[in-house]
Amino acid sequence: MDKASILQELNAVFIEVLDNDKIVLTRETSAADIGEWDSLTHIQLVVGAEKHFGIRFLSREIQRWKNIGDMIDSISNKIN
Amino acid sequence: MLFTSWPVLLFFTGFFFLYWLVAGRDLRLQNLLILPGSYLFYCWWEWRFLFLLIGASALNYYLGIAIDKTDNIKYRRLLVGVGVAQGLWMLFFYKYMNLHHGLIPLGISFYTFRTLSYLLDIDKGKIRPTRDWVIFFSYVAFFPCIISGPIDRPGMMIPQLEKKRVFDYGQVSDGMRQLLWGLFKKIVVADSCAMFTTDIFNHYQVLNASDLLLGAFLYTIQIYADFSGYSDMAIGASGLLGLKVTRNFNFPFFAQNIADFWRRWHISLTSWMTDYVFTPLTIYFRNFGKMGLIAAIIINFAAIGIWHGPNWTYVLFGILHGCYFIPLILRGTMNKRTKKGTFIKIAGTFLLVMFTFIIFRADTLSQAFGYYRKLFSITIFSGITITEKISAGVVLGAALLMIVPEWLQRDKQHALQIDRIRWFPVRAFIYFCLIVLILGFGTLKHSDFIYIKF
């Protein structure tokens, strides 16, 4: 799967978990840009992405992400 | 020696003029003054553990550079592991094994948390290590904050030490006012509360429940006035040197619930714990939903308790606070900012917190339980019997003199940011009254800052 489609699918995960269909993600989006994205919903987002893509991230990996781009790279490394 | 004493004031005044008049022109000179100044200050209190401080600084300085240099993940993990093990071992060895019979290296809990976050942030890629050892050693030992915090993060503090500080009248006068407010909270409020609480907690068996209620209330006021007063002084003193130190208290007594309270109380410790303990735990427990969150918060708060020292009272204090979060987690409102505050919520949160500070203050668990048994007894209606050199009314008045201005100024950094009072003589009169009160109460018996022993 290419990174553009990962972004699209990830966007759907965010919309569902955060219950806000106005969310439009880019590679540069970070927690500062989305009001509902705090440390607790972050965990739900991680779990949502893991379920959706059928993968499991490493703890250290999750903590190193700075924005959506980093998250997509992690997903891409795991499914491709 | 007391932190609020004339020698310390003289030392700091001298340092202030040397810093701006002699070293003010040159960045390198400013830092070269901060480091020996900090070590001198440290030795003044306790010279025996200076080498421990220097050793820990040196080790973490080199580890930081080595972690940044290597691409080998296993080697990198080893280096981080060495740093973390050193920090935790030092805490364990000096604080928890208590071989030196109560003699704990000054500030060890505070500066160890600084070195730990430095290495962990480098490992996470959040910061790059500094290549200037004077700056790193100063970051670890910075004298206004080494004794009791605030625990500054490297990402906030080190970049400031890398830039030349320029004298800014606004920053310096604000620092001065925060220092004055801190001094007032410590000497007028905390120390006069201490006269009562020391006696009440030492003799709770023979006192009425009314006295014990007064003791619990005054101790809650005392620990806030003491610790936030210290923090105000540290932040103010740093401001006088042109450095912005992280905020430690945001008027916690006006919190709407317990999560709100911990966002406002000892912020530099709780945010540290959130980043390096709570968040990793929530990630680790992420498939267990709310149960995972509850487990993470209870472990996190037990750790906050233990951080204070090897006593079951602190553990229980932490666990109790962790349990206070359970309703918020179950309702999913832990991270929600309450929009409309009510007085009932503020008072309720205060009572919940006051209840736990009895355990915090008690020397042993059995003393704490004894205190509770006595507190919830029929003598609650017998009236206050305890007497001290000053009356309980004066102490409660002093507490009001602290709480009312803080309520009015609750959207500011500290209570003395009173620029909206346009007329200077009024502001000057307020400062004058505070100084008179400080000098007046200054003749009473003083106790050292509570958090110095942590």
Describe the structure.
- The complex is a heterodimer of chains A (80) and B (454).
- By secondary structure, chain A is mainly alpha-helical.
- Chain A is built from four helices and no strands.
- By secondary structure, chain B is an all-alpha fold.
- Chain B has 19 helices and no strands.
Brief descriptors of the model:
heterodimer, A: 80 residues, mainly alpha, globular, B: 454 residues, 69% helix
Continuous helix count of chain A? 4
For the terminal residues of chain B, how far apart are their CA atoms? 16 Å
Instruction: Estimate the strand proportion of chain B.
Output: under 5%
The helix fraction of chain B, in percent, is 55-70%
> How is the main sheet of chain B built?
none
Biggest interface, and residues per chain? A-B, 12 and 13 residues
How many DSSP-defined strands of chain B?
A: 0
Helix-and-strand structural type of chain A: mainly alpha
**What is the N-to-C order of secondary-structure elements of chain B (H for helix, E for strand)?**
HHHHHHHHHHHHHHHHHHH
Could you report the average pLDDT of chain B, rounded to the nearest whole number?
91
What class do helices, strands and sheet pairing of chain B give?
Answer: mainly alpha
Instruction: Give the low-confidence spans of chain A.
Output: none
- Taking the alpha carbons of the first and last residues of chain A, their distance comes to 7 Å
pLDDT average of chain A, as an integer? 91
Topology as H/E string of chain A? Answer: HHHH
Radius of gyration of chain A, Cα only, in angstroms? 11 Å
Helix content of chain A: 55-70%
Biggest sheet of chain A, in brief? none
Number of helical elements of chain B: 19
Helices and strands in order, then pairings?
The complex is a heterodimer of chains A (80) and B (454).
Chain A lengths: L2 H16 L20 H15 L5 H6 L3 H12 L1
Helix pairs in contact in A: 1-2, 1-4
Chain B lengths: L5 H17 L4 H20 L3 H20 L3 H24 L11 H16 L9 H9 L1 H4 L7 H9 L6 H34 L6 H32 L17 H7 L2 H18 L4 H19 L4 H13 L1 H6 L11 H19 L3 H11 L16 H17 L15 H18 L13
